[in-house]
UniProtKB/TrEMBL annotation:
SUPFAM superfamilies, per the entry: Cytochrome c
InterPro entries: Cyt_c-like_dom (IPR009056), Cyt_c-like_dom_sf (IPR036909), Cytochrome_c_Peroxidase/MauG (IPR051395), DHOR (IPR010538)
Record flagged with keyword Transmembrane helix: no
Full protein name: CxxC motif-containing protein (DUF1111 family)
Pfam family, one: DHOR
Organism: Cupriavidus agavae
Presence of the UniProt keyword Nucleotide-binding in the record: no
Length: 709
């Protein structure tokens, strides 16, 4: 691999190589061209996405001069407890619990946080905790701490300490208000309640925190409920918030080891309410208090229909977002973001003759400009009943059978697409990817990405990763691409605005005119108010930035004897470890980089200086003609694809409904891990060949490893 280079410029050899490969089939943003790109220059400048000194949105942890550790823990309402399934632990399966759900009206008057002032590192036997309300008034909130590990009968829930926040200014009643002095609602404790008798607090002691918010009643401030539970979090004395898992004998809380934290301390704890289909929708474990409100407001927009303003969940009970009624474009694919990203996961699987309206069909003319009929993508639905039909379907599948050295036969399928409208000169079918961990990828310093680039294969391993360089449509600055199947978006903001205009015809400050979808050169000159305001575009960006990554499920949890083990936790640690070793040995890690570290310039403290395991280098690689389409994006030519992050891939079988509904690769052609690997060509040919030569038990071990991510 190339050595690190000075931030701000792509080395001349790298740039020349990028320009040379682009000339083979690259072109302008959104299209493919046969026109050679501009001649190479000695070096090309790029700008960091976030400059040094970028201020924080919110501080989430700091130490005072005397050593006191202050942690700000954000939280939101939930309907039940973390270990509470749809049935008693010793009863037959009756479905999932309701811990990871979002109750009605979750986006207003219901988020809060706990400010923790930990005096133990400063030599004091005292921890203070303050309730901080983001909006409105809480009345009757209770607070449970220290799971009662001494009681062998504790299962779903049970704590040693149960208290509340009594406010002297409210006559000793548990009433806490937005913006009040924090001292008005606080508790103090000075010993460890997990032992009998209580013992002195020491650094490293785990403390389970389970606040239960209550809204002021008579009447309730809005049409939602008033009594909730919330996330059950683990605070480690002297350390801070930690993702947790359940250990014997009764799934008692313990910090997850660092090597399971795919998203660092922003990772999502193991789930014991049997809701693996909802793990992609959860906020980062280390989220701050004010940022929790930003998260839920952005989530509301992600679930809002720009046709009728309804929410995708509890549409009869959640209030209509009236500001967004009738804002869907004249043509569109879906009315809500969540419709394409199933449970924040991927598009619906390809099916013969079914309209591919949860995928993006990008288009271009022969020269790489916008297609005369469709613009930059096909919008398959129309508001007008008389508008032309632009359905895109998979009319058939080209099928081949590959026989592996051990005799196993693998059927590979490639979709053949049909257009009801004119067939564009160039196009690319893209399934929607999962949206977890995007903020962590955005927080990676450019130097960490560019250090892995090797356009001339200087180390002789056959891998020639290169970055995509993207011009920001608002500032004109050039940034390193990170998002999309060809790394064609440099920021989450750009990704959100691009999806709004292309998939829903919804305008935003970045793309303020419907003409932007058609590539109009003056589209940003519009002065008409946009459908999504600047504040709302920020909130959607904040939401996607703060979605956490589930921790790797490679540990056996401590279910009590006789209790059914949840399917997502029925794992074989030895097989997973073997698969991880093999994944490295056959050199999949040459592109699927296991470990990276985020920088210290992102505006969200939750994302700074996190050691993460995305299994991606975010670079473009030539994957061979088998995966090539006919369309390029920016400097990425048709055979080049960004290394897809693998974190979360093992949860897709729950997110999408079942394993048969999971589709892999950019156009969703692969139905299994083995199929996906066998489509790898170009720079990945040697790794694929090594995979093919493995005995089936070893291929299965790699599958078990991927299932754990």
């Amino acid at each position: 691999m190339m050595k690190r280079h000075a931030q701000g410029r792509v080395p001349a050899l790298m740039l020349a190589a990028m320009l040379m490969v682009t000339a083979c089939g690259g072109g302008g943003d959104g299209g493919s061209s046969t026109t050679p790109p501009p001649a190479a220059t000695p070096a090309e400048a790029w700008s960091p996405l976030y400059a040094a000194g970028t201020p924080l949105m919110e501080q989430i942890q700091y130490r005072e001069a005397d050593g006191t550790l202050v942690t700000l823990m954000g939280s939101r309402p939930t309907e039940r407890h973390a270990r509470e399934r749809g049935e008693a632990w010793d009863a037959p399966d009756a479905g999932p619990g309701r811990y990871l759900t979002f109750p009605t009206f979750y986006f207003q008057n219901r988020t809060f946080g706990i400010e923790i002032r930990d005096g133990v590192p400063a030599g004091r036997q005292k921890i203070e905790m303050y309730l901080r309300v983001n909006q409105g008034i809480f009345d009757g909130t209770t607070f449970s701490l220290f799971r009662n590990v001494l009681d062998p009968n504790v299962r779903d829930y049970g704590w040693a300490m149960n208290t509340g926040f009594n406010n002297a200014k409210e006559g000793g009643l548990p009433i806490c208000r937005e913006g009040q002095p924090k001292e008005d609602c606080m508790i103090v404790f000075d010993s460890n309640w997990r032992t009998d008798p209580h013992s002195p607090l020491k650094i490293g002691d785990p403390i389970e925190l389970a606040p239960a918010p209550r809204l002021k009643r008579d009447p309730v401030v809005d049409g939602g409920g008033s009594r909730y539970y919330s996330f059950e979090q683990l605070y480690v004395v002297g350390v801070g918030m930690r993702p947790w898992y359940g250990i014997a004998p009764n799934l008692d809380s313990a910090p997850l080891p660092d090597d399971t934290l795919l998203g660092g301390t922003a990772s999502i704890s193991y789930n014991y309410s049997e809701e693996p289909m909802r793990v992609f929708q959860q906020m980062s474990n280390n989220i701050g208090i004010a940022n929790t409100q930003r998260f839920v407001e952005g989530r509301r927009l992600f679930h809002t229909s720009f046709a009728d303003g309804t929410h995708s969940e509890h549409d009869k009970d959640n209030p209509v977002f009236t500001a967004h009624i009738g804002q869907l474009g004249a043509r569109y694919n879906q009315p809500r973001c969540i419709e394409c990203h199933t449970n924040n996961g991927r598009s619906k699987p390809l099916a013969l003759a079914a309209k591919l309206d949860t995928m993006s069909i990008l288009t271009a003319n022969a020269e790489g400009g916008p297609d005369a009929t469709y613009g930059n993508n096909v919008q398959q639905h129309a508001q007008s009943a008389t508008a032309p039909a632009y359905d895109v379907t998979a009319q058939s599948f080209e099928t081949t059978v590959r026989t592996l050295p051990d005799g196993e036969k693998v059927e590979l399928v490639k979709p053949v697409f049909a257009f009801k409208g004119p067939v564009p000169a160039r196009f690319s079918a893209r399934q929607a990817p999962q949206v977890i961990g995007m903020g962590l990828l955005e927080a990676l310093p450019e130097s960490a990405i560019l250090a892995q680039a090797d356009p001339n294969d200087a180390n002789g391993d056959g891998i020639k990763g290169v970055p995509n360089l993207i011009v920001d449509p608002e500032t004109g600055k050039t940034h390193v691409g990170r998002f999309g199947w060809k790394a064609s978006k440099a920021s989450i903001r750009q990704q959100v605005a691009d999806a709004l205009i292309k998939d829903m015809g919804v305008t935003s400050p970045m793309f303020p005119s419907p003409g932007c979808q058609r590539g109009a050169p003056d589209c940003r000159g519009s002065t008409v108010p946009t459908s999504v305001t600047e504040n709302e575009l920020e909130r959607m960006t904040h939401y996607l930035s703060l979605i956490g990554v589930p921790a790797q499920r490679k540990l056996r949890s401590g279910f009590p004897d006789g209790v059914r083990v949840s399917p997502e936790h029925d794992v074989n640690p030895a097989q997973i470890a073997r698969g991880s070793d093999l994944f490295a040995q056959i050199r999949c890690v040459a592109c699927h980089t296991p470990t990276m570290k985020t920088g210290n310039t992102h505006p969200f403290a939750e994302l700074r200086e996190q050691t993460i395991h995305p299994y991606s280098d975010l670079l473009l690689h030539d994957m061979g003609p088998g995966l090539a389409d006919t369309l390029a994006e920016s400097r990425a030519y048709p055979q080049q694809w960004r290394t897809a992050p693998l974190w979360g891939i093992g949860s897709l079988r729950f997110i999408q409904g079942d394993r048969s509904s999971v589709r892999l690769l950019h156009d969703g052609r692969a139905r299994t891990y083995t199929e996906a690997v066998l489509w790898h060509g170009g720079e990945a040919t040697d790794a694929r060949t090594r995979y093919e030569a493995l005995p089936k038990a070893d291929r299965d071990a790699i599958g078990a490893f991927l299932d754990s991510l």
